[in-house]
């Protein structure tokens, strides 16, 4: 059985696709998500073989979701959308297939064929664009936090938080993704810092240090990363 | 002393003759500088006239012993200069001077030189006034008197200088000096008075007709903005008749009488074809046609008992093309007032300008109609296919509801594909939006609430068709659809301060000022409301980020029913 995650902001669209996939007898729907950010932890937790991904969703599109994923979490991708204007882009993203809603049974059958052939090979590397705004889940909507406002990022058992002058925002993105694609600097196993927002480095006793950000917060710097940070800051 | 008095009397006599002659001739066209007239011809006529007067001045003078002539030659030359400038003054003065030489006598040369000089001096006064006070200025009587008296004194000087024997010259100057200086100065001063007076009367007529034309223009402005045709022409005709007091006023297009107001309206009727040759000529040649009722009569082609006798037909044009005429009529035995004539001449371009403005407005309206089509054609394919997908899904569990949704979708597209009328009622608009909302509610079933609160008294409110749909669609596309949690759309219609306010609100609060080509839908809705209902109405947006976006449509409230 192919394990699939469905991501679409319309409940009926999810139900319809789930019903069609069930009819094939080849796919097990392991989860459904109502928007892109919900999919990030679901992918990590469920490790599906394939994601059936809508393109137009609140704030963060299906394409953008792919740029936010940790490479370890990326499954095969099938886009499912109402209109064919995104088809070219979809194939640039190395998607396995591109389905138009309402989805036809026979067309879906071909998609399953392709998936079966492709599942033996590892997922193709997806194009990874730079992240300029970091999406964070709010109460009712997704907030896009401008990278320039981010002073540092901390990771704890509860999750990853963006630290800005105004406060902290929970994000589903991993430190690794933020380090590699958002240009934030790794200064500690559990911390990233925005070098543009660093005010000063305060050297500590045991070879470690802390940096103070413009808003006066401190971020620990471990010995391992201190040299590189100094170099990056031109010290 | 008696000689002096009789000389003065004779000179004044001559002057009176000039004055009478001038008064009559000054009414002739040659003395009215008008644009478009032949300048050379006017100049020549003036030269002939003033040279005539000046030479007559020699003849009407009194010959004295030795061939000297006590005369009023200075008048013609000086006035010619006042009216026509240095060249005309010089030409008149020298012609009359040459003529004086042919008459002989020992003062002939002095007289010829003096007259030539006087023409030139008059012309220099003209030029000076023109530079100081603008074209067409004439000297006042004091200046005229002073300048002439001075030049006549110089004339006497020429006699003493050029005429021999000197003893005779001195004697002659003693006799003719005072009466000639006085008579010529008085004569020229009188001319100046008369000419100034005539100029004032002409200015008055022009000012009066301009004021009236502007009054008509002000009153017709709003009317012609609605277009030029059978609907607006009667009001225009009535206003022109009120302002001019003309016997009758007609407004036509190029083939048909659009409106006729006043005498003869029993047989001159709106809707009948144009038959008068005057109208035809005005339309064909794009020129003003005037039958004064004296030399040329308006022979009514429709009724032998028609009283109308004089007519002025002024063509109306837009971009140089005649699109109709305005016609002023007077009955027999009533003078066609010159004020009305110049008013008719001035009014046509003013009304034409208004028509041009109306055309422009119309073109703007057409443009928005084109843009409206664009918005309609913008029917989002995502909306269509997502709706169909939703229906396909609902069909699995509830075929009755799926059928309802299909019907809503059909209703929505039927409205969208129809070419809308300019205005629709709020009820029709809400039906259109209602179909859309039903589908969106099905699509976002788990997270969308729609609340509607419409004052039932406003259901017949008229507003531009296709006003609500783009605004509601915006609230979804840019607001509610961007939420990951529950959202609410509210549509309200209420009356406030003489206005009808329709509010479309969403609690996403995601509105951002549109940049570039975005926000086209809202801009067009706003423009259509302003074009169709007035500049003071339209669409306004308020946004509290993260809380709500409210789009308010302001349109005039319908009259409250008693």
Note the main attributes of this structure.
heterodimer; A: 235 residues; alpha/beta; 5-stranded parallel beta sheet; elongated; B: 562 residues; alpha+beta; 5-stranded mixed beta sheet; 14 strands; 16% strand
Taking all Cα atoms into account, the compactness measure Rg of chain B is 40 Å
The rounded distance between the terminal residues' Cα atoms of chain A is 56 Å
Sheet-strand content of chain A, in percent, reads: 25-35%
Element order of chain A: H for helix, E for strand: EHEHEHEHEHEEEEEHEEEEEH
Unreliable sequence segments of chain A: none
Oligomer: heterodimer
Strand order, main sheet of chain B: write it out: 4-3-7-6-5
Number of strands of chain A: 15
From the alpha carbons, calculate the radius of gyration of chain A and give it in angstroms. Answer: 20 Å
Structural class of chain B: alpha+beta
Mean pLDDT across every amino acid position of chain A:
90
The parts of chain B where pLDDT drops under 50 for at least 5 residues are none
Helix content of chain B: 55-70%
What overall geometry of chain B do the principal axes of the alpha carbons give?
A: elongated
Number of helical elements of chain A: 7
Structural class of chain A: alpha/beta
Task: Give the rounded overall mean pLDDT of chain B.
Answer: 83
Explained architecture:
The complex is a heterodimer of chains A (235) and B (562). Chain A has 235 residues and is of the alpha/beta class. Chain A has helices at 11-24, 36-46, 62-68, 87-92, 105-118, 175-181, 223-232, and strands at residues 2-7, 27-33, 50-53, 76-81, 97-100, 133-137, 142-146, 150-156, 159-164, 168-171, 185-188, 191-193, 198-203, 209-213, 218-221. In chain A, the strands form four sheets. A five-stranded parallel β-sheet of chain A has the order 2-1-3-4-5, sandwiched between helices. Chain A has a five-stranded antiparallel β-sheet with strand order 10-9-8-12-11. Chain A has a three-stranded antiparallel β-sheet with strand order 13-14-15. The longest helix of chain A has 14 residues, at 11-24. Chain A is elongated and about 65 Å long. Chain B has 562 residues and is of the alpha+beta class. Chain B is 58% helix and 16% strand. Chain B contains 15 helices and 14 strands. In chain B, the strands form four sheets. A five-stranded antiparallel β-sheet of chain B has the order 4-3-7-6-5, sandwiched between helices. A five-stranded mixed β-sheet of chain B has the order 9-11-12-14-13. In chain B, helix 1 (2-26) packs parallel to helix 7 (166-224), helix 3 runs parallel beside helix 5 and helix 5 (108-133) runs antiparallel to helix 6 (141-162). The radius of gyration of chain B is 40 Å and the shape is elongated. Chain B starts with a helix and ends in a 6-residue tail after the last strand. Classes of the chains: A alpha/beta (235), B alpha+beta (562). Chain A binds chain B through residues 9-13, 15-16, 19, 34-35, 37-38, 56, 58-59, 82-83, 100-103, 137, 139-142, and chain B through 381-382, 384-386, 388-390, 392-394, 396, 442-446, 481-487, 508, 510, 546.
